[in-house]
Amino acid sequence: MSSIRTLIRGGLVITAADEMHADVLIEDGRIAALAAHGSPTAESWTAGRTIDATNKYVIPGGVDAHTHMELPFGGTFASDTFETGTRAAAWGGTTTIVDFAVQSVGHSLREGLDAWYAKADGKCAIDYAFHMILSDVNERSLKEMDLLVEEGITSFKLFMAYPGVFYSDDGQILRAMQRSAGNGGLIMMHAENGIAIDVLVEQALQRGETDPRHHGEVRKVLLEAEATHRAIQLARVAGAPLYVVHVSAEEAVAELATARDMGLNVFGETCPQYLFLSTDNLAEPDFEGAKYVCSTPLRPKVHQAALWRGLRTNDLQVVSTDHCPFCFTGQKELGRGDFSKIPNGLPGVEHRMDLLHQAVLDGHLTRRRWIEIACATPARMFGLYPKKGTIAPGADADVVVYDPHAEQTISAQTHHMNVDYSAYEGRRITGRVETVLSRGDVVIDERDFTGRAGHGQYTPRGTCQYLL
Questions:
Q1: What mean pLDDT comes out for the span 405-410?
Q2: Beta strand 441-444 with 49-52: parallel, antiparallel or unpaired?
Q3: Distance between CA 367 and CA 365 in Å, rounded?
Q4: How confident is the model at residue 1 (pLDDT cuts 50, 70, 90)?
Q5: What is the per-residue pLDDT for 468?
Q6: Handedness of CA 173, 176, 177, 178 (dihedral sign)
Q7: Would you say residue 6 has pLDDT above 80?
Q8: The pLDDT of residue 3 is above 70
Q9: Is the pLDDT confidence value at 212 over 70?
Q10: Looking at residue 150, what is its pLDDT?
Q11: In the predicted structure, residue 2 carries a pLDDT above the cut 80
C-alpha cells in the first residue's frame, strides 16, 4: 500500500453522478477528500507527490467484469496470463478485473476456484476478483454455491451454449437459479441455443461452408433471442435475478427491455466488439476473419444502433470486454478449413475505456454515462461499490488521469496484450490514459509502466447492489 500522500490537482473529476473541477487528496491507498479547485480547503493541502491534471479528466479506474485470462478453450489457452493481461488492463485505465474460475465436469467448484486462485496469486498488476463458471450442476455443486457466496464469489455463470463442454440444460439452470435466489448470488447467462447451433454448424460444414464468416451465420440472432427469452422465464420461475452476458443483437436487447419494463431484476451487458465491429470483419478474406471469431458472434452493423440505444436507455447496463485472446498464428489457425475449430475470443481489455470515450465524442454517450457503464455499474452489479467504481472519500484510490485530447492509433505494434493482432488495427481514436493509480500506487506514470506483478490484490465481493 502506498504511504505517500498524493494530490491530483486541477482536473475535471467525472463520476457516474457528477462532474466537478476538483482536487483529489489520496492517503493510505484511499481517497481522503475532494475539494473545489482553488478553494481554501484545496489550497491548504500538501502532499509528497502532486500530479497535475490540468485540462485532463480524473476518473475512477475501470472495472472490467468479464475477462478470461489463461482460459482453456478448444485445445489451447487464452494467450494472456494474469500477469500480461492485468498489465495491459492497467495501460488501458482498468484497475479491477473480475475473471472466471472454471468448474470442470466431474470436479467440485472448490477445485476449480483453487486452481484460479493459484493462477492469479502474486501475478496481477491490478486488483482482481472471480466469478464461478458452473459446468456440472448437481447436488454437490449446488450446496457449494452457498459456501462460495459466503467467501465473496457471488456470481455464477451458466452456458446455454457449447454442448459437451460448458452446457447446462434447462433443469440444471433452473436448479442453479433457485439456489441463487436463496443465497443472494447472481446468475450470469451465456444465452445462445447451443443444441440448435450445433445442428446448423454440422449442416454448414457438410455443405463445405468452412470459412470464418459462417461462424456468424450459424449462430443465428434468433437463437440468441430465444435463449435470452428462455433464461428470463426460468429466472422468473426461480425468483432469481439474471445478468445476460455479451448481448450482441437487437432482438436480444428487446427481450431484456420487455423484462425490465415488467420490473424484473434482469440485466444485460454488451462489449466493445459488438459496438464497433461487425460481420464485415468476420468476412475478411484469407482467413483474416478468424481474428474476429467470438461467441456470441459479431452481427451485421444494423444491430449496433440498438445496442447504443440500449446503453442510453439502461436496458443494457454494463460494457465489459469478454477479453479472451488467442494468437492468429498457431491458435486461431487451428480452425483453417473448419470454422468450428477456431478458438472463440477477442483481445480487448486494453481498449475498452478508450473506445467508450470515443463513443462520447461520437455522440453515443455522455461523459457520466461512460463512467457509469465502465466503472460504477459493474462495481455495483458485482458487489464492489463504493470501494471500486467511483471517486469519493473512503473509496480505493483507483484513479485515472485521462487526456481527452490526445490522439492515438490502435495497433498490435503498440498494444500490451499478449496477442499477435489487434481487433481494432489502424483505428484512430481521441483520448488516452496518461497516469493510473491502483490503491494509491502509480502503476502507469505519464505513459510509463511503473507497476509490478503482485501489486494487485484478490478482492472478495458482496452481493449485487443493483437490484430493482
A1: 98
A2: unpaired
A3: 7
A4: low
A5: 79
A6: positive
A7: yes
A8: no
A9: yes
A10: 97
A11: no
Residue with cell 502509480: 442
